[in-house]
Amino acid sequence: MAKRLFLLHIGPAPVDVSEMTEALALGQIAVPELEAEVFDHAGIEIRRAHKAAGLKRKQVEGAWAKVARRAWKTRSDCFVSIPGFFEAEPEQAALALDGLADFKVVLVVTSGFEVEPPAAWVELVKSDRTHVLPSHLTDEQLAAQVARIALIEEEARLDKRLAKVSKRRKQVNRRLAA
Q1: CA–CA separation, 85 and 77 (whole Å)
Q2: Which of 53, 59, 109, 162 could pair covalently with 117 via S-S, beta carbons 3.0-4.6 A apart?
Q3: How far apart are CA 143 and CA 135, in angstroms?
Q4: C-alpha neighbours within 13 Å on the C-beta side of residue 97
């Protein structure tokens, strides 16, 4: 079974995911149903910035795991926006990606082309799965771009599967001819 996509938007500017759900649903992309506070706490938890946010560790602990579990329960490709991840250090980004081992992570950065995408994330996610988009996109435009990215990934998966089937078919035809 192919891994499901986890389309991770890391900002730096926040987006209104509630405005994007309809457009994302057209691309068969789900958004985990959680309160916005949980997504904020996940960004704080991974960056270990709870003191700076005026929170106790106990208040943010497990938020990222909760997001990952809820994304897995959707049983489809998922889109999550956590702008707080933009400032993550390399070891923090690695920790966040460890929680997504069951997914194929696609990184979506809306930093525009004047701000460099965060190196901590770009080094950990394959370059063909990292997408830098302009920073001035509306929520609907971002949703359309995310759906386009998901379709590109699906096309690549199907092309790879087709190549395997074609190779297997050639092997069977050779055996039949012998």
Answers
A1: 20
A2: 109
A3: 13
A4: 19
